[in-house]
Amino acid sequence: MQAFLTIAVRAARKAGDYVIRESDKIRSVQSKSQNDYVTNVDQAAESLIIDTISHSYPNHAFLGEESGKTGDGDYQWIIDPIDGTTNFIRKVPHWAISIACQYKGKTEVGVVYDPIREELFTAVKGRGAQFNGKRIRVSNTNGLEHALLATGFPFRNKQKLMEYMQVFSKLFPHCADMRRAGSAALDLAYVAAGRIDGFWEFGLNEWDTATGALLVKEAGGMVSDISGNPNYASSDSILAANPKAFKTMLQLINQKE
Ligand code: IPD
Ligand code: CA
Ligand code: CA
Question: Is residue 43 a contact partner of residue 69, using CB atoms and an 8 Å limit?
Answer without folding.
Answer: no
